[in-house]
């Protein structure tokens, strides 16, 4: 019978010392530690020590344990194929034993290692992994259930296509119905994991999901008003994706979905509002857009116009998580979104609200709202203007420069689609915009330049 691996106490002490020193703010210390850690990779069981610290040394501080796991993750990523078989097996066993660690940080770190190993072996070399995680979902221990879901979510994100392949005997046939069972779990974290896992399979029209599409939609509607913002965000994301690939299933519910997305675009949580705002971009690409959205323009346009100012000025320190603009929105980053193009060198009277440089390039609610106005203007053309003009009249001449700036952005956003209807008004609009170039606020001047460029016809 093979002896179970045990760490040598002196080796364990040295590694713990290095892990703690690596958290020093001193860069010279960090470089020295990094060099020593690299040298330790020459020892075959070094990675055993790392997983041992992560999963077994509960007396150590969580950041130290987690750091040990992240170093192991990097080693797996860089050299897993050169691990001794017994080392690889030991790490796998320890990971599965620690999926339900009481610490959320440790559970997440374990999940990252599991996913990294799975991606290296394409899941085929770890056949017991998915059945084990699936079984853990039914645990009465919340930590075990949440840890297993966290790992499964990472696996679904990284290997969605493989999970629907014959190479693994199509585990999604079991996993999708299983995930759907947890949409109504008492824990918002579990509900969030369950929706996120299923969402990864919408765009690929995965057969296992398509077989349960009606149940999926029904459960999404049940969670529409969930008190947890992350759950609402995932519900909005699911509906946006379904609009793109299964419009046929949403048609009967579109009026209600539009009302829901109107409400969510005004959600107090900016991340939820951003996901909901993506809906208008997707709906604009559908043939039914004019028919279903036309009657709701008087409600929608004020919301989008107001949102053009929200992200930059009120929530400029909040960046969207887990979100990248899809291909149909990227083109707008260089247009409406870049109204935030003024940079450094401004006088002290600029930007009372502060300037978060990171928001200049991030896809955010402001940019998404302007992009939505852009695409809707291309759908509705001059028909948009009777609804838009009262909004512009109120915002363009507002005393609050923030509201005024958002109105100028909205004016520029609709330029392409509404050009024909705007031409008669340009003799008044252009002088107004030229006057705005003298505004004290740099960001008003910047967006005015962009808006003028949108109406420049050569």
Overall mean pLDDT score?
85
Q: Count the strands?
A: 0
Main beta sheet:
none
| Overall form | globular
Indicate the radius of gyration in whole angstroms.
26 Å
Structural class of the helices, strands and pairings?
A: mainly alpha
Number of helices: 26
Beta strand %? under 5%
Give the termini separation.
83 Å
Percentage of helical residues? 55-70%
Uncertain segments of ≥5 residues (pLDDT<50)? Answer: 311-360
Secondary-structure element order, N to C: HHHHHHHHHHHHHHHHHHHHHHHHHH
Relevant terms:
globular; 458 residues; mainly alpha; 26 helices
Describe this protein's structure.
The protein contains 26 helices and no strands. With 458 residues, the chain is mainly alpha-helical. It is globular. The chain starts with 8 loop residues before the first helix and ends with a helix.
